[in-house]
Input
Amino acid sequence: MSLSALRRNADLYRRLLGVQIQSQAQYRVAFWVDVLTTAVFNGSAFVSLALVFTRFEHLGGWRLGEVAFLYGLVECSFGLMDMIFSGFDPRDFGQRVRRGSFDQMLVRPVNITLQVLGSAFHLRRLGRMGQGIVVFIIALNLVQIQWTWGKTLYLPLVIAGMVLFFGGLFIAGATISFWTIDSIEIVNVFTYGTSEMIAYPMHIYPRWLRTFFTFILPASLLNYYPALYFLDRPDPFGLPPILRFLSPLAGLLVILAALAFWRFGLRHYQSTGT
Output
């Protein structure tokens, strides 16, 4: 793709987002109520976790501040991803395919991937991001992290890795909607389920689960291993230290694989006829 084409696509994406933001900003009271409701709903889960720590001092040897570090980081990242990749959310995309509105996108002289990406931008996800940031700030006050330039520069890369990873899962889940309308539950296991799982230390899970989510679907590389680096904790499994620095690569590989699957799905897509 040429530089001029990239600029045109970037400008088009900016315009699509502008339309989405303007439409949501028209009802400010409803918007802020939605954001606050989302923040409170998601934040209640962490409050429940904190109450558990009043009874049990640690979870697999990790104290509240260390678990909050994992929890806040993944919540912030997933909320950001959910806002950017809302158009590929399998729950909504499957409905779009069934209604036939996806067919309308296909006849437009605009890149279809860009259209779907810019078709939704749910600002209410700021609520989930906000509560994730609050939890992360709480974690930083509960744990003593020796910040270095390496850790400071690596933190946004870890967030980017998680955004790409879960965005890739959304794209893959949306692609599955081309062939089946009953895929949503299994897709949720690998999107929302994975985000819940990596909010806790990986060593508390069974070996087969750790193996799958490290070497097949590399979710543990996104949050747990970087946390070992930030918190200066040893790896209880004795795996190579390089795993702590593979979060951006894992996210990039997953979204590239998902985009390849998406292109395959587009080539074999058959209209619903609605």
Summary: The chain has one domain: 3-267. The chain has 13 helices and no strands.
